[in-house]
Amino acid sequence: MLFKQHRFSGYITPIFLVIDLLVINLFAYYMPINFQTPILFHSYLSLSWILLSYKNEFYKIYRYSKVVYILRKLFNQFVFFGLLLYAFIGFFKQPNMSRLAMAQYFGLILVSIGVIKFLNYLLLMKYRKSVKGNIRRVVVIGKNKKTDQLIEVFQERTEFGFQFVNQFDPKRDNFDPTTCYRFIVDNKIDEVYCSVSELGNEELTGFINFADNNLKTLKFLPDNKNIFSKKLKFEYYDYLPILSLRDIPLHTTINAFLKRTFDIVFSLIVIFGLLIWIGPILAILIRLESKGPVFFIQKRTGFDNKEFQCFKFRSMGVNNSSDAIQAGKNDMRVTKIGKFIRRTSIDELPQFYNVFFGNMSIVGPRPHMLKHTNEYANTIDKYMLRHFVKPGITGLAQVRGYRGEIEKKSDIQNRIRFDIFYVENWSFIMDIKIIIQTIINAIRGEEKAY
Q1: Where in the cell is it found (predicted)?
Q2: Rounded to an integer, what distance in angstroms lies between the CA atom of residue 372 and that of residue 326?
Q3: What is the CB neighbour count within 10 angstroms for residue 130?
Q4: Could you report the per-residue pLDDT of 30-42, keeping only the tens digit for each?
Q5: Cβ–Cβ contacts within 10 Å for residue 227, how many?
């Protein structure tokens, strides 16, 4: 079942966003509000709701959220939506619109969306409790009063959707973090909860590095010790405080939905506006110069370290070393047409098909060959963090000068540093800036575009 396997239930928020937009627009259509320009009014309502939802994080509801938290979300959303609703009259000069009908309309959508919101909340809890779907497997490191309370929460509050698998006691003489690491990997554990009071600084650092390099979520039961991390976030499971090591913006469903919507729209524009006519021309030129396929298809690692087929226009003669040796300066394998399309980044255009199919995003860490992923995962600290998001056609590291061939270790270290910054600090505005800078760089030409 899809939601049993899916970690973040990414389809839930888009579905309820669409339902809310339908409610908003259907009530507006049938209520006697007397608006003169239907397309303008419906577009204004829809855009206002989407922007407010993004700003107020209206659809950011956690599995452990309380009813008061949802009520606060509803209050914040509808206070501003009500102001924007009545602002339409003055801003677009609509004196004939009925203020009373608008008040009735506002009350109806408030009640309707409120009911939908709580229905969503209750159904998800029921789903986790009864069907055992949307589950996260967890282990606890530590044996004390707080860890016992946490395990009790996991076992009794089954509507939260946590499956407690095992507990490790650091105070036992035979405690070995390596054994914990092996158990976590072998049993496909999603989240690790550490009692900071029972772990030394070296052990804490070891768990942090393990979680970063193995795509595991690490959380802490806080005490008076220092936790060396750039970002810490408080959460409450029932009334028990939990510290998260980092908050990844794209793991918030509304952010992921916004990015995915943009990816689909942008990729369709490129596919039908550019690739549909430039593709046949390049296909002829590539085949005239050298025999072989038009497209170069290579396995690369993507989101959650899963393999996918990455598409490019073939820029080299057919050879047996493509999966092992990265293209370098004055590479004899590169054809004449290949030099041009690599210098202008035209060879990357077929990756918009990858974006449309969902393997990639427009912006994100560049996907690496399988050989390089295996190599760097063992030599570059926190390398695997870049796989918390989808790989991109372009990325922050690329527009900062770290694209192309890896000539020395500092190249990949700096690239990963920018990739991790992107993962931890993503915003839609950042994506737009990176896309604009990528276009500018393509026009200017880049030193390592060979």
Answers
A1: Membrane
A2: 10
A3: 10
A4: 888 877 788 898 9
A5: 16
> Distance between CA 35 and CA 47 in Å, rounded?
17
Is residue 14 scored above 50 in pLDDT? yes
425: left (phi over 0), alpha (psi -120 to 50) or beta: alpha
**What is the residue-averaged pLDDT of the chain?**
84
Which H helix or E strand runs over 273?
none
Report yes or no: 216 and 184 within 8 Å, Cβ to Cβ: yes
Q: What token pair was written down for 218?
A: 């690490």
The residue among 180, 225, 241 whose CA lies nearest residue 206 is: 180
What confidence tens digit (pLDDT) does each residue in 297-328 have?
Answer: 989 999 988 899 999 998 888 777 666 666 66
Residue 15: the pLDDT is 83
262: tokens are: 């943009």
253-270 helix and 38-56 helix, angle to the nearest 10 degrees: 130
- Written as six digits, the tokens of 241 are 């405080």
Interacting residues of 155 by C-beta distance below 8 A, sequence separation 6+: 164
**309-to-150, 181, 274, 318 alpha-carbon distances in Å:** 42, 30, 22, 18
| 139 in Cβ contact with 184 (< 8 Å) | yes
pLDDT in tens, 372-426: 888 888 888 788 889 889 999 999 998 888 876 677 778 888 899 899 999 988 9
State residue 166 phi and psi, 5-degree precision: -160, 160
The DSSP annotation for 338-359 comes to: HHHHHHTTGGGTTHHHHHHHTS
Helical (H) or strand (E) element with 334: none
